[in-house]
Design a protein that fits this description.
Helices cover 37% and strands 21% of the residues. By secondary structure, the chain is of the alpha/beta class. It has two domains: 175 residues, 3-Layer(aba) Sandwich (Rossmann fold), CATH 3.40.50; 104 residues, Pantoate-beta-alanine ligase, C-terminal domain (Pantoate--beta-alanine Ligase, Chain: A,domain 2), CATH 3.30.1300. The strands form three sheets. It has a six-stranded parallel beta sheet, with helices on both faces. A three-stranded antiparallel beta sheet has the order 9-10-11. A two-stranded antiparallel sheet has the order 7-8. Helix 6 packs across helix 7 and helix 9 packs antiparallel against helix 10. It is globular and about 60 Å long. The N and C termini lie far apart (46 Å).
Length: 285
Amino acid sequence: MEVFYQVKEINNFLAKGNSFNDFAFIPTMGNLHEGHLSLIKAASSKFNNIIVSIFINPAQFGKDEDFDRYPRTREQDIEIIKSLSCVDVIFIPSKQELYPFGVDGAAKISIDPLSRELCGNTRHGHFEGVLTVVLRLLNLFSPKAIYLGKKDYQQYILIKQMVADLFLDIEVHGCPIIRADGLALSSRNQYLANEEQEKAKFLNKYLVECSNEIRHCSERGAVNLICDKYVKSLASKGLVCEYLELRSAENLSTIMSLNKDDLLVLLAAIRIGKTRLIDNVEFSF
């Protein structure tokens, strides 16, 4: 396994060619957990070669967000990836490597209006930062496939749309959420005190219950009433809900009518103390 820190090292490695042609790519911000490892394992079931990046992208953090305290565990992450014995390259660039003209002066990409909805409604510029760094990495590597977790469902849909819209010949694979006692795995879970972790488990519990009630709806208007009820249920547990919305699982468009066999996704973002968590449930009628 190779560990590279510079763009020119990646270019030199890929220029050698050999059998390293059709490979999968997994972008991460490090602090790896079983959710990340599930992406690597899914990729290894289909591809012989894998590249993983570790980069805490400043462009996707707002001014008052947790960029400075986001967990940085580089050496631990390298050892974890090594133990899997299926990753060929880890790329750990500096900010200067990926943003040679600076973050503020970088060419940026956005997909509106979806970039400004749901999480984008409160995290202004977040998805612009995500798409910008992912496109840079895809242009650098030119992988056959990219593997993403569906916990960040809006991110997954936006990247999938970007790849299609820019005619990139790259497969986009969305992988299931990995949970511990119902709580979706996230690097931000470690911000939670034990009592807060117990409360946070209600997020998925109520999403499942809410989706089950929506399955029995016959009118679109009733969905809003059901969602409002569960926003209040979350509040009763000390979880402040930023949004709880039903969208199309295909492209996150707003659901105007309820049709049998449509694949839907119920998405939510909550705050517990100073920590923001997201989760979702896919389902159909």
